[in-house]
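Annotators were shown the component list below and the corresponding predicted structure, then asked to write short factual statements about the assembly.
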Amino acid sequence: MLRLGFAGRIYPVNPSYDQVLGMRAYPTVDDLEGPIDLAVVITPPSTVATIVERCARKGIRAVIVSTEGFAEAGKAGAKLQQQLLNTARHAGVRLIGPNTLGIVNTSNGLITNPYPMGYKRIRKGNIAYSSQSGVIGAHAQPMEDRSYHVGKTCDFGNKCDVDEADWLDYLMDDPGTRVIAMHMEAIKDGRRFMDRLRRTAARKPVFIFKTGRSEQGARASASHTGSLAQSPQICNDAFKQAGAIPVNTWQEFWEMPKVFESQPLPQGNRIAIVTLTGGVGVAATDVAVESGLAMAQFSDATMEILSGLSPNLTKNPIDVGPTMVLTDNPLAVYDTALTAVLSDPNVDCAAIILFAGSAPPVGTTVSMLARLKQRISKPMAVWMYGPRMHFRDKLSRQLEAFGLPAYLEMETAIRALGIAARYAKVKSELGREASRGSPTITTRRKAENRSKSPAS
Amino acid sequence: MLRLGFAGRIYPVNPSYDQVLGMRAYPTVDDLEGPIDLAVVITPPSTVATIVERCARKGIRAVIVSTEGFAEAGKAGAKLQQQLLNTARHAGVRLIGPNTLGIVNTSNGLITNPYPMGYKRIRKGNIAYSSQSGVIGAHAQPMEDRSYHVGKTCDFGNKCDVDEADWLDYLMDDPGTRVIAMHMEAIKDGRRFMDRLRRTAARKPVFIFKTGRSEQGARASASHTGSLAQSPQICNDAFKQAGAIPVNTWQEFWEMPKVFESQPLPQGNRIAIVTLTGGVGVAATDVAVESGLAMAQFSDATMEILSGLSPNLTKNPIDVGPTMVLTDNPLAVYDTALTAVLSDPNVDCAAIILFAGSAPPVGTTVSMLARLKQRISKPMAVWMYGPRMHFRDKLSRQLEAFGLPAYLEMETAIRALGIAARYAKVKSELGREASRGSPTITTRRKAENRSKSPAS
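Structure shown to annotators:
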């Protein structure tokens, strides 16, 4: 936290040391002074409940329990976890965990993950990622190399108390969160979660990567988090009905949200694909169609501009490569074609496929795209291919600094645009439904009463 | 070619120069001496047919036409292409192209791709990649960074003569090719291709990435190669029936074949998943089940060894992480568990999920896996996660040098094993069918007669 520039005060509690990293250490929680917002507990399982009680006495109402050895470790652990939960409920304390790497907030440098690596240089953004597993952290994911734009993360671990429904309650009004991506194995209170999901999805896109979909996966989940994952039928279809976006791979989980973080929602599903090689254009067209996008038919005005450059350029996908090779000023051709296409009222979004072959030309293209992005407010996604991953990653990060999401795979770029178009439609439908009113609110009241009851 | 160490003789032909890169240049093909195997033509479209005639007179029976401006460029180009084909057929010359980046053979340094970058350092292997598009080359794909194990590549371009059926004819008996991966848009002679595909797939795995699956994609294909791609119904299902393996993304196209290049075929579909974190184990289990794999039930002997290490280790997926954290010798635990699992007669293949967190431990794990691979001949696939892509890539290359395929995504690693299990089954069925005999041979004769006819 010190290295991430956390501005708040930190109170180390440790009976064996007077000082920790130059800060005064307190022997017990009882010795702490001043208002404290959050406690992070990493002590042996049997001590945690007592510490939570002490926290409550000191007015600390939020506790993260990183300690392992609870429900995931067998029957004795499950009993300890129930005791811990009872203590917390009785004391009016909310708990994240146990068995969690905790939370990260890149905007204020709050990080309770004990693995420090990777957090300092991740790109800050407005995406909230959460997980039921340690793989969520910057220690495990190439957040810097891949530029995932992290705002907040939460690892729920065994989630004996705080769960994804609480997380959504918080995020739906959080101005620092534009997109939500949740990995989850088990759903604790299905009705409450689906209610929160529906209301959040009406305002912000929510991606869900549900694992434990298979019976065997659900059993594996039970053995490491102590809770049983749900059977497939209440998973992806239900999420979709609630307006959320199910994804099926880690890559989609991490990369898809970017399109919503930096891009406006598309007004429709008509895509233009601008490529430098025909073969990729064909493959991209397949993916677009399979993602529910329609290949845009250019307007007469656009066709006139394009055919002025070359008769080969009037098709969508537009393969600008061959024309660029034959001209003295390839970038002017590219700029004119791309501007015409993106300004076309028949085009709702664009996939831009670049070739990161050698440094200077593609660098100039990146600047050109940055200027274009300033003038035209339509969702775009970029895929860059080429022989050097490092160079591709570097250019991708430049593009993202200019507000253009760049993807590792062509398929992810196009599918992200397809998801954006579908979500834009879903959002307006959910908005209309919500404005009609009552059922949502009734469900909310019930759910809130339940969550307040210590018996639940 | 000089830089790749091509051992054969090269004869530059150019009317304007006496010397090219220190080699004597000849003004025309007519001036060439000695037996020549292959000509690469990169002259203007209108000159190509004449040059092919001259090649034939010099006894050159194989020509690669890189020149663009044929069928992909409109009606005039299509006419030129037909003339070129007639000339070649009449002269008894076989043509690759036009509009092609040509071929690469990493084993002898033969490379006709005019973009030199990327070829020198790619990992040589036994995979034959082909494409109908320029993206096949090392100039466009991160062949070095991703370690694709390239043996031969062929870009068919407009494929007016030599096509994928000829390619399969050659590769099915080529000892340097263990796996075949083909990107294709249009199929020229469906019956002939399917016949060759069936016969090749009975001997070697053939991956097919068919683009132009959608109507719009097929139209886009027509506009850059001059040939119309087929409608979806004759695509992936037909390939599967023939024993081939359809893939749907570039990543699968490039990465899936690796499992067949270095691994034995599995004897069945029972997988063991060895992970260091529970969450990834759950996700991997879902993918395994969805890929047609069954979670292996360990034998009593294995269970005894595993429960001796920790009662938590008797499940599949095996999450070794928590046990390793609690022991003084984590690698010994890992080694014992992994050896027991892989030696188990109930296990047909294994997915190994590693965490590339910090240098020394995972480096030691890599050496340990290398020793294990020497002792146990079962197919394995590795996925390494962690915060630094560069470090992941480096360790992945080390693993691959030891004969263990390492994948960029967990899902690809598991699906590759699923494909291996399915192919092993398909292969034995196709083998039985082929040994019953006649229909295949009849089809072959017919197809060969047709391909010899200049009118076809």
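Statements collected:
1. The domain at 265-426 of chain A is CATH 3.40.50.261 (Rossmann fold).
2. Chain A has a mean pLDDT of 88.
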